[in-house]
Amino acid sequence: MAYVNPAGEFSRDQRYITTRITADGRDGYPVEAGRYRLVVSRACPWANRSIIVRRLLGLEDALSMGIAGPTHDERSWTFDLDPGGKDPVLGIERLQEAFLARFPDYDKGITVPAIVDVPTGQVVTNDFAQITIDLSLEWKQFHREGAPDLYPEALREQIDKVNRLVFADVNNGVYRAGFAGTQEAYQKAYDRLFARLDQLSELLSGQRYLVGDTITEADVRLFTTLARFDPVYHGHFKCNRQKLSEMPVLWAYARDLFQTPGFGDTTDFVHIKQHYYEVHRDINPTGIVPAGPDLSNWLTEHGRESLGGRPFGDGTPPPPPRPEETVPAGHGAI
């Protein structure tokens, strides 16, 4: 399975299933507790966002979660972590089965996160950017008491702007560098990535979070890329001007979030490394997974409290993750 574009610049296929699960059910899928299953892989940064948001908002009772293994083949993600290799709720071995159940001729990417309608076994959506916004806005009736407002109305325009820039140059920028097929395309992506990281460092040197004084959707989206930077992107994707741990402001910002309930305790570094180094064989033909880096530095003091800010605003931290959703021992820094 090839990821590098030999012609030059990597272009992400962004043809997602845009059906939405809404409070009014206007797309045919109303918000209902227990009806849907969020399928994720802890390896994937896009899926990791939905894991964090679901946890921060306290949606565990309303929206169950299936966890696929860290690797996949050309067909799709598989449930090899579950007994018998089948998701215990959906009864399927491959996420592909839920996509084909709704679209028998589906020819686009089988991606996570995806939300599946349990009664029919059909995928509803894999539109990762909209999924987390809708968890905040459409699923409000099922939020826990003390859930933070991750997408406050007064800040949405600003959050959307930050998200667009971060997606283009950072979230997707690391892939544009890693999957570039020519020196010119790689250099262009590399320059854009680090120029944006420098701008973000400057912004975050004077404020604790990206937008406003609380954690928002924007912080969730940046965090999942930063968490993968040193274990994967620095070496595997050749984003090697500096490690994250050598960029003082962003490193402190990332540690601040990592040490916040819902972030570090949903981050599985073993799955992250297994995914990138084993799946991208056109970049890493041997499939050897690096032993490093040392992760204990994620737990060091960050000093970001001095900038003020209230992580959860008027809300409260989420409770610890449920036993069945806890990152396995030895897979994280916590």
Give a nutshell description of this structure.
This protein is mostly helical.
Give a written overview of the molecule.
A 4-stranded mixed sheet has the order 2-1-3-4. The protein has a domain at 158-325: Glutathione S-transferase Yfyf (Class Pi), Chain A, domain 2 (Up-down Bundle), CATH 1.20.1050.10. The longest helix is centred in the middle third of the chain and has 22 residues, at 183-204. By secondary structure, the protein is mainly α. α1 (45-57) links the parallel β1 and β2. The model has no long low-confidence stretch (mean pLDDT 96). 34% of the residues lie in helices and 6% in strands. The record marks 233, 276 as: Lowers pKa of active site Cys. Residues 149-279 form the GST C-terminal domain.
The major sheet is characterized as: 4 strands, mixed
Q: What is the correct CATH architecture of one domain?
A: Up-down Bundle
Give me the Rg, rounded: 19 Å
Distance between the first and last residues' Cα: 34 Å
Mean pLDDT: 96
Indicate the structural class. mainly alpha
Strand order of the largest sheet: 2-1-3-4
Protein name: GST C-terminal domain-containing protein
GO molecular function, one term: glutathione transferase activity
Organism: Actinoplanes friuliensis DSM 7358
Topology:
Blueprint: E1 36-41, H1 45-57, E2 64-68, H2 96-102, E3 114-117, E4 122-125, H3 128-137, H4 156-171, H5 173-178, H6 183-204, H7 217-227, H8 229-236, H9 248-258, H10 269-279
Parallel strand pairs: 1-2
Antiparallel strand pairs: 1-3, 3-4
Features of the shown structure:
Thioredoxin-like_sf, Glutathione S-transferase Yfyf (Class Pi), Chain A, domain 2, Glutathione-S-Trfase_C-like, mainly alpha, four-stranded mixed β-sheet, 34% helix, 10 helices, Glutathione-S-Trfase_C_sf, 4 strands, GST C-terminal domain-containing protein, 6% strand, 334 residues
